[in-house]
Design brief:
Helix content: 25-40%
Distance between the termini: 25 Å
CATH topology: Rossmann fold
Number of strands: 2
CATH architecture: 3-Layer(aba) Sandwich
Strand content: 5-15%
Structural class: alpha+beta
Radius of gyration: 16 Å
CATH class: Alpha Beta
Largest sheet: 2 strands, parallel
Number of domains: 1
Shape: elongated
CATH superfamily: NAD(P)-binding Rossmann-like Domain
Length: about 80
Amino acid sequence: MIAVSLGLGDRNIRVNAIAPRPADTEATGHVPAELLDHVVKGLTLKRLGETVDVVNLAQSLASDGAARITWQTFQVDGGDTLLSA
């Protein structure tokens, strides 16, 4: 991402990444309820993410209000990265 950002910055093109997890998707429908409950209990926000969470961030990053934001990775994870492995 660094190389891409450096290569496109002079053209005023911003480069960011969104890293969503864990999220309520079709795939989580196949996860046993016990395991899913355990995952949710370990999240700071105590809920799985939704598609709209990622969409809202992407729209914000694409807006003029984020014109100075580049070379960033945004964790959309409900606090999952705060937990120790």
